[in-house]
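Let us work through a complete example step by step.
Step 1: write down the sequence.
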Amino acid sequence: MTDERRYDEREVGLILRRVAELQEREGGKGDERGLTRGEIEEVVTELGISRALVARAAADISLQDLRNRPSWRLGGKTDLMFEEVVGKIDESLHTRMLEVLRRHLGEPGKLQREGGALIWSTGESGRRIHFTAVEHAGQTTLRLEESMHSAAVGTVGLSGFAGGFLGFMLMVPLKALVVKSLLLLLMGPLVVVGVMLGWLIGRLTWKRSAQAREEMLRRAFTELMTVAAEARKPPVLAAASEPDDDAE
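Step 2: predict the structure and record it as tokens.
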């Protein structure tokens, strides 16, 4: 009989996640062919994990990949979403999590409940950020997301318009240098070039803005996960003092 330690499902999941993080950090390359969903189900079955969870995890990853995908036309991401499943959380933990969000985002936000979901949303900063906590079967799904499409379109669109306007205004100094007929021929290309340059500048501007927003949301979500993990830790009991052998 072996004395090797056995890990429960939660610990197995944490170990596998940590292995993946170390693999990515150290630049190691696994099998480039990857695994099919059926092959993944066979692996998790050997680990004693339900096959049904594979389908749910695959759907969650597909959704996050879709939401976090950058837009080539706008130069950066237009949606952000971070999601994690943790154990059951109580009201005091909800309150601690909301304080984390308020500290990172700099506003009190608005809290509401819909069915079994707790939803916190920003309202004053102009950013559309939502934090949702949904309990199901003893587990809680935490999701932090931001919709940035309107901000992205506004940034790139305004930059393109400004570029086109500046291209048009170049006709003013050129008026004294070229004849009127040639100036009219140059008007279209000048505006088009201005719009293109404005679009490129707008894409670069939005890319940097989206990256800054994502980093802020990532820091907030990381701290939320830290708070949730600390709450699940069992309390440390003080060691009982041993009786004094000399005591009578």
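Step 3: interpret the result. The chain has a mean pLDDT of 78.
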